[in-house]
Amino acid sequence: MELVYLIGAGVAVLTGLGAGIGIGIATSGTAQAISRQPEASGKIMTAFFLGIALAEATAIYGFVTAILLVTR
Length: 72
Fold this sequence. Notes:
By secondary structure, this protein is mostly helical. It has one domain: F1F0 ATP synthase subunit C (F1FO ATP Synthase, Up-down Bundle). It is 90% helix and 0% strand. It has helices at residues 2-36, 41-70. Helix 1 (2-36) runs antiparallel to helix 2. The mean pLDDT is 92.
């Protein structure tokens, strides 16, 4: 039964991998959008920070879930 919790913790940690990939893609898209339309950089950055916050929240949820499963 202990192995099941460890496997679950490992799967939960993978959310950090997904968040990292998503943040990288969002940063790349933001840089391209700002270089094409510098006058709209304020609006682009607002959407960028909102997306980054959601991605980070997902990673934090996965990390907390993994800690809870390991320390159970």
